[in-house]
Amino acid sequence: MYTQKVIEHFTNPRNMGEMEDADAIGKVGNPTCGDLIWIYIKVKDDIITDITFKTFGCAAAIATSSMITELTKGKTLKEAYQITRNDVAENLEGLPPIKMHCSNLSADGLHKAIEEYLEKNGRTIDDLK
Amino acid sequence: MVDQINFNHSAGVPIDERVLQVMEPYFRQFYGNPSSVHSAGQQSAKAIENARVQVSRLIGAESKDRIIFTNGATEANNLALQGFAYRHRRKGNHIIISQMEHLSIINTAKFLSKQGFEYSQVKVDEYGVVDAQALQDAITDQTILISIQHGNNEVGTLQPIAEIAKIANDATIPLHVDAVASAGQVPIEVTDMGISMLSLSSNDIYGPKGVGALFVKRGISIQPILLGGGQEYGIRSGSENVAGIVGMGAAAEIAKQQLEKNATHLRRLRDSLIKGVLNKVDEAYLNGHPKNRLPNNANIRFAFVEGEAITLHLSFQGFLVATSSACTSKTLAPSHCLLSMGVSEAEAHGALQLTLGRENTLKQVDRFVEVLPPIIKKLRAMSPLSKEVPYDLYEDEEHDHEHGQEHD
Fold first, then answer.
1. In this complex, is the C-beta atom of A103 within 8 Å of any C-beta atom belonging to chain B?
2. Which residue, B104, B107, B173, B109, is CA-closest to B135?
3. Is A98 exposed, middle or buried (0-12, 13-18, 19+ CB in 10 A)?
4. In the Cβ-directed half-sphere of A119, how many Cα atoms lie within 13 Å?
5. Where are the domains of chain A?
6. How far A11 CA lies from chain B's nearest CA (Å)?
């Protein structure tokens, strides 16, 4: 049901844990649905220098969280904001169709974290364009 | 690869070696169709009659009662409800079931509600026990059938079936019992208990998959839902699965002989499992009735973590278990049993369903109790939820899951 890549990220998640001095946190999902993803980012000169996650959810939720941190680290806010749910799924060599909608939330979490960061600094998404 | 240890018997049971041996000749040597007049046919017919007696004995049925073999318990449940409802629709149009029933009962009741029938679902308490007063109150002058499960495969709760049968009998309404999970683990005496129909599954008693049976008490008439050559007293057409039926009969005989021995063994493992896990993991809770539960069932929910993740980690260590988490169901819908018992959707995600079997050992249980706590710890370290950030912070938020588990 899951690809080797999903299992690998689920078993050994990258960049897992709380970030105490995060510049912004993107919180998405709901425990009622079974998926809750928090993405913590550290930003310097519009570059995401560090990113971690905390996730309540199934293997797909954990693996997508882990994957987004790998895809994002070192990217500019603009580049990171362009990462999509599909990018995450593709880098995991696919997700079961039923999990594409519910558990593939990490890109949303990243976008929310970026939005929060910009808002805190009196900026908007349009500034990235 | 690590050895596999099956703690998921409610999903699949390895067939008993002795059963397999009894079945073997019926694939090639005794291949006759029981409907044939010739000797090969009659040999098969005789084997099926023998299996009927073996199954009757397991549940305390009498020789004049009927055991109708089906292709499984889902079919038996469909046949019981639909076959009875259609046959007796002139007497009334109301059926009573409970919130804890298997989906083959709930969805059949729903289907019947589109065919001019109505149904009530009796509520259960926090342990999943049917509320006797609510059952009493649900009876109307239109009620023709009550269908209540004996033991719940998911959370383990046993219903007070003798008390329920008394309510049904006092109201002269036939009672159907889904005994799929309880048969072979808990004594069943259909005659003494006053049960009119009862569903059984072969695989759940260590027989082959693809076979089940419906007991129908003498004097209770039902209508077929499969039409054809009139096999099985005209109630279930289709050439008989002779080897499967022979296997179910042999499995029933062994289950009857070993019932007390197996139940004692299973209770010992189950209690050790529950005690061990609850002692070692905090924020863990037993689902289902603490005492009146199936000897082989432990259902434990763990706060702040999700069951599919636990299940996969356990699988890497060789333990085969199931979870009540919606994330593993085909429709992403949460367990209707846990919700009926007042467990929230969020909490239901963390429930593990552990169903033991004859071949399990205390050593395996001890190993499980060692292996599980680090998994829960690892997943909790990953989870944003904790005592400080509990579920209910989120309860008012909307969520957009499509819940389509039961047929509309």
1. yes
2. B173
3. middle
4. 9
5. 4-122
6. 8
Which of B72, B70, B77, B136 has its CA nearest to residue B105? B77
Judged by CB atoms within 8 Å, which residues 68-97 of A form the interface with B? none
Nearest CB to B383 within list A56, A102, A103: A56
Contact B336, B405 (CB under 8 A): yes
B312-333 tens-digit pLDDT? 999 999 999 999 776 666 667 7
> Scanning the structure block, which residue is given the tokens 């299996």?
B51
CA-to-CA separations, B81 to B46, B70, B244, B351, in angstroms, rounded = 29, 14, 24, 30
Residue A44: which region, alpha, beta or left (left: phi > 0; alpha: psi -120 to 50)? beta
Rg (CA), chain A: 14
The ipTM of this complex is 0.94
Record: contact A33-B328, CB cut-off 8 A: no
Instruction: Give the tens place of pLDDT for each residue, B355-406.
Output: 999 999 999 999 999 999 999 999 999 999 998 888 766 644 444 444 333 3
| Whole-number Å distance between alpha carbons of B327 and B159 | 28
Q: How far apart are CA B346 and CA B111, in angstroms?
A: 29
Indicate which of B306, B311, B376 best probes the interface with A, i.e. most A CBs within 10 Å of its own CB.
B306
Q: Which of A92, A72, A127, A128 is nearest to A8 (CA)?
A: A92
A59-92 as b/e: b if 16+ CB within 10 A: bbbbbbbbbbbebbbebebeebbebebeebbebb
Residue A44's CB is within 10 A of a number of other CB atoms, namely 9
Question: What's at B146, amino acid-wise?
Answer: I
Burial class (CB in 10 A: 0-12, 13-18, 19+), A125: middle
| CATH class assigned to B17-255 | alpha beta
A102 as an active site residue: the answer is yes
In total, the C-beta contacts within 8 angstroms joining chain A to chain B are: 80
Tell me what the mean pLDDT of segment A41-55 comes to: 97
What fold is seen in the domain B5-9+259-384?
A: Aspartate Aminotransferase, domain 1 (3.90.1150)
Residues B193-217 have pLDDT tens digits of 999 999 999 999 999 999 999 999 9
CATH topology of domain A4-122: Sufe protein. Chain: A (3.90.1010)
Beta bridge partners of B28: none
Q: Can you give the residue ranges of every domain in chain B?
A: 5-9+259-384, 17-255
